[in-house]
């Protein structure tokens, strides 16, 4: 089984702490792999050709053991890093050299690293959507790194009281009851980190679920009261042949299980296609721009594609995309910014012509100054026939007096 597929590829300094722990747990599966990257397992020194048979046999066993452990460790490291990171260690012959190269590149000096871990510990805050055990595990990991750094510098470790106070400080408002009861009821000798972890996990498991269920019941009750009355009559569903799929936008089928999935968390996001991660992004806990890690997908069969070349229509295309600016300005921008050289054409742009056009004034008409000077007429119909077989109406209007008179007629000649 390939366990390396379950480890997110190493992209840079941000992923190094988590990646280092996961890869060490993976290498512990093979005998001698951990000792190989730590430098404790070294390549056996060559022996003389006239050595005894038992000595040569033991030397061969040690060489085989070192070769298998080194090969396994180096292959696991190479398969769990991106191509950009692998280029930095591709010239290393042993797993120890590759590990030390990664550690020097992504691990800061002891002083800078200790300062960074200390800052990360005090800046740690509650992330909505994660349970209490996840927050405690992350905070405990940072705490262990901080104490290990202090121990490496031969300084005294921090007391567990600081870790307990930090956990109590980041708890949200729904844990206020548990925090108060723990501070009042627990004895001083029992106020340990383990006891606090047990009580918080028990409180989240028993009480927060009851609050969530009661809140959902209230929301359901409100939604039921505000429900609209059902419409009478039967609902006629659309035919599958006439409906379109929400995934591929084609008609004739409904795809309920698309082959792609996008997963997002406060610290990372990834795009899966056929259960394979093709796009991955990560960022810090406090929030920033996602650092993307692209992995190209090569098709099984090579296909021919058409390439875009500069022609006369390209200038018109950028002219439309860039808000119908002057084509001479568009040509200069293409040459300076994109390196595309294109000739200036004289093609007319229809939207530009309509945009620059203006409407002429309609003018004023002459009005009548006395009765009978201007009379307008109009014919309406046909209507239903009257008793006199008439179905049209002709109307005469005097423009000065606004007087109207209508006559019923049998037929209309236009």
From TrEMBL:
**Which InterPro entries does its entry note?**
Retrotran_Ty1/copia-like (IPR039537), RNaseH-like_sf (IPR012337), RNaseH_sf (IPR036397)
Any one GO molecular function term:
nucleic acid binding
Tell me where on the tree of life, at the top rank, the source sits: Eukaryota
One Pfam family matching this protein: Retrotran_gag_2
Which PANTHER family has this protein been placed in?
A: TRANSPOSASE, PUTATIVE-RELATED (PTHR42648), TRANSPOSON-ENCODED PROTEIN WITH RIBONUCLEASE H-LIKE AND RETROVIRUS ZINC FINGER-LIKE DOMAINS (PTHR42648:SF28)
Record-given protein name: Retrovirus-related Pol polyprotein from transposon TNT 1-94
Give the species: Trichonephila clavipes
Q: What is the lineage of its organism?
A: Eukaryota, Metazoa, Ecdysozoa, Arthropoda, Chelicerata
Gene name of the record: EVAR_64293_1
């Amino acid at each position: 089984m390939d366990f390396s597929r379950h480890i997110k590829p190493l992209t840079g300094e941000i992923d190094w702490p988590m990646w280092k722990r996961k890869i060490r747990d993976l290498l512990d599966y093979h005998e001698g792999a951990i000792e190989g990257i730590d430098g404790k397992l070294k390549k056996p020194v060559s022996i003389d050709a006239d050595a005894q048979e038992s000595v040569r046999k033991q030397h061969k066993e040690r060489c085989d053991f070192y070769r298998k452990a080194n090969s396994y460790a180096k292959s696991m490291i190479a398969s769990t890093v991106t191509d950009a990171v692998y280029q930095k260690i591709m010239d290393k012959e042993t797993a120890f050299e590759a590990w030390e190269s990664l550690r020097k590149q992504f691990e800061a000096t002891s002083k800078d690293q200790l300062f960074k871990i200390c800052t990360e510990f005090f800046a740690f805050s509650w992330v909505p959507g994660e349970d209490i055990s996840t927050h405690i595990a992350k905070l405990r990991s940072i705490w262990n790194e901080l104490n290990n750094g202090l121990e490496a510098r031969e300084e005294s470790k921090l007391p567990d009281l600081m870790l307990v106070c930090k956990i109590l400080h980041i708890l949200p408002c729904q844990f206020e009851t548990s925090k108060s009861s723990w501070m009042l009821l627990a004895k001083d000798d029992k106020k340990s980190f383990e006891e606090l972890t047990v009580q918080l996990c028990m409180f989240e498991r028993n009480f927060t679920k009851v609050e969530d269920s009661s809140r959902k019941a209230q929301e359901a009750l409100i939604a039921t009261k505000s429900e609209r009355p059902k419409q009478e009559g039967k609902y006629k569903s659309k035919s599958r042949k006439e409906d379109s799929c929400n995934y591929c936008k084609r008609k004739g089928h409904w795809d309920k299980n698309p082959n792609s999935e996008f997963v997002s968390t406060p610290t990372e996001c990834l795009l899966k296609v056929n259960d394979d991660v093709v796009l991955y992004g990560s960022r810090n806990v406090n929030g920033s721009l996602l650092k993307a890690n692209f992995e190209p997908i090569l098709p099984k069969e090579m296909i021919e594609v058409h390439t875009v070349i500069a022609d006369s229509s390209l200038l018109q295309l950028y002219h439309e995309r860039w808000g119908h600016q002057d084509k001479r300005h568009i040509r200069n921008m293409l040459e300076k910014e994109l390196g595309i050289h294109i000739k200036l054409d004289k093609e007319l742009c229809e939207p530009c012509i309509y945009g620059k056009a203006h409407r002429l004034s309609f003018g004023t008409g002459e009005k009548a100054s006395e009765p009978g000077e201007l009379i307008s007429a109009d014919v309406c119909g046909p209507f239903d026939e009257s008793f006199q077989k008439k179905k049209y109406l002709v109307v005469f209007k005097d423009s000065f007096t606004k007087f109207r008179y209508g006559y019923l007629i049998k037929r209309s000649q236009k």
